[in-house]
Design a protein that fits this description.
Layout lengths: L1 E6 L5 H15 L7 E6 L11 H8 L17 H4 L2 E4 L2 H10 L7 E4 H5 L14 H25 L1
Parallel strand pairs: 1-2, 1-3, 3-4
The chain binds 4-nitrophenyl phosphate (4NP).
Length: 154
């Protein structure tokens, strides 16, 4: 199974989701059966490591994001992944426009499908440290629900 997380810059929210899901799959013994990646709708940060604030907040909870490099999402991703999960509604709208008609990949809003209180992961880029903690809180909880679904699908 192949899962792609998508946000705007691919340096804050989707790299966090990639790192958290990969960690949770390792804990569940499923790391070999699921390929996890992330991408951005924008191209400003292509090739760069995640934002330093994102890396710091994630590392403090045990997720090392330092090996990740940003990439821009394209139509080919819909052939390469089974599940494409958008962090907010703007990302989802971008992906809906990009998605080829015949694509088999499922496309959904990450928190609408797996979250509880909010249906979007708020963009932390222009805010304070609290925003990065909230991103982690929302993503950790939703990834737990995603892992349950993955177990059922494998
Ligand atoms: P992300 O956050 O979409 O969670 O990676 C952002 C990163 C960079 C920018 C915006 C959002 N930016 O405008 O450069």
């Amino acid at each position: 199974m192949r899962v792609l997380f998508v946000c705007l810059g691919n340096i804050c929210r989707s790299p966090t989701a990639e790192g958290v899901l990969r960690h949770q799959l390792q804990v569940a013994g499923l790391a070999d059966q699921v390929h996890v990646a992330s991408a951005g709708t924008g191209d400003w940060h292509v090739g760069k490591a995640p934002d330093a604030r994102t890396c710091r907040a994630a590392l403090s909870r045990g997720y090392d994001l330092s090996a990740q490099r940003a990439q821009q999402v394209s139509a080919r991703h819909f052939a390469e992944y089974d599940l494409v999960l958008a962090m907010d509604k703007s990302n989802l709208a971008h992906l809906q426009a990009l998605r080829p008609h015949a694509a088999s990949a499922e496309l959904d809003l990450f928190l609408r499908r797996y979250g509880a209180a909010l249906d979007e992961v708020p963009d932390p880029y222009y805010g304070g440290a609290d925003g990065f903690e909230q991103v982690l809180d929302l993503i950790e909880a939703a990834c737990q629900a995603l892992v349950v679904e993955i177990k059922g699908r494998l």
